[in-house]
Write a structure and sequence with these properties.
Helix content is 41%, strand content 17%. It contains five helices and six strands, in the order H-H-E-H-H-E-E-E-E-H-E. A three-stranded antiparallel sheet has the order 1-3-2. Helix 2 (16-28) crosses helix 3. Bound molecules: zinc ion (2 copies). One zinc ion binds at residues 89, 91-92, 94, 128, 130-131. One zinc ion binds next to loops. Pfam families: FUR.
């Protein structure tokens, strides 16, 4: 994946820090801000948490990166992709994507609430296959 082109496609200024953030998120899928900071410090020893937040906010604003809110855990961040739900392991805290068809659920929510539903977010928790061995 060409991270420089990807940043440009979202009208984002290309900096080595941003390229590195995108690379980490692409490698790991989902990272919270502390995990991201720890990885970034390896590459940029003088980088501050504030700088990472600033860069993240710019990329979130352009919808290039999305925040995933996990109940009772820190939010994680991921590169925007096809709409999907998340499964979280209660033991090892691993987070994975699961592509679900939520169209029926969203239209049920809409007809029962009389809201115009625009988006949805689903987080399922349980025990992953490795932890249940
Ligand atoms: Zn697990
Ligand atoms: Zn995800």
């Amino acid at each position: 994946m060409n991270y420089v082109d990807l940043l440009k496609r979202y009208n984002l200024k290309v900096t080595p820090q941003r390229v590195a953030i995108v690379q980490e998120l692409n490698d790991y899928g989902h990272l919270n801000i502390d995990q991201l900071y720890n990885k970034m410090v390896n590459k940029f020893p003088t980088i501050s948490l504030a700088t990472i937040y600033k860069n993240m906010n710019a990329m979130i604003e352009k919808l290039f990166i999305q925040e995933v809110k996990i109940p009772n855990e820190k939010s994680v961040y991921e590169l925007s992709k096809e709409q999907h739900a998340h499964v979280v392991c209660e033991k090892c805290k691993k987070i994975e994507d699961v592509v679900l068809n939520t169209t029926a659920l969203m239209s049920e929510a809409q007809s029962k609430s009389h809201f115009q539903i625009n988006s949805s977010a689903f987080v399922f928790s349980g025990i992953c296959s490795e932890c249940s061995k």
